[in-house]
User: Fold this.
Amino acid sequence: MAHRRTWPSARWALLWAAAATAGVALVGGASIVISGWLIRGVEAANGGRHTAEERSTIGDYFGGVSAVFSGLALLLLVITLLFQQRELRLQRRELSLQRDELTASRKELSRSAEADMRALHVQLTQMAMDDPSLAAVWNDHPEMSQPALRQHLFANLTFNHYVLALSWGSYSDAELVIHAKSLLSSPAFRNYWDAARPRKAELSADSPEGRVFRLFEQAYADRERGMPPPTA
Assistant:
């Protein structure tokens, strides 16, 4: 069955190939005949073959001049494209610099806004330290004496100071651990830390406060184990 199916397909392929060959031969022959008629017509219009050949030679001279101008036009086109490419490259570089400047300006504005928020927090904390009755609004330190309340508020300000310093790159992680161990050697700060740990543990690890909290926790654990402070 496979042999019977293959034979008709091969026969049709041969027939199509023969037809295509005949078509190409027919078109080629017709082109030769038509070209001969056209050549005779050109010779007759120009007064004979000799006159047509002379005029053809003159046309070749003009063709050479045309080729020269075409080459010059192509050269000018290439030069124009090269200049446009250079201009586009310079424009891309300028746009990249502008984008970098906008990014830097955005970061600077973000840092400025963060500093303003920290300043407002300091102002609110200062008001609560001056008037302990205002601290009841936050409800963070119930039933605490006024001296202990002021210590807790000041310790919180100190913690936020290191949050801002780490955000701005003033301290490395190792340097901040050293400062945290120094603070945790104070009983007043340890009291604040023991009270604030449950809330600060809920902070996102990617936030500045979360990073500083985990560094303070590292310092707290190292201190409990009696490890020496890391060198900056």
Remarks:
- Helices lie at 2-45, 49-130, 146-167, 173-184, 187-200, 208-225.
- Residues 128 and 138 are 10 Å apart (CA to CA).
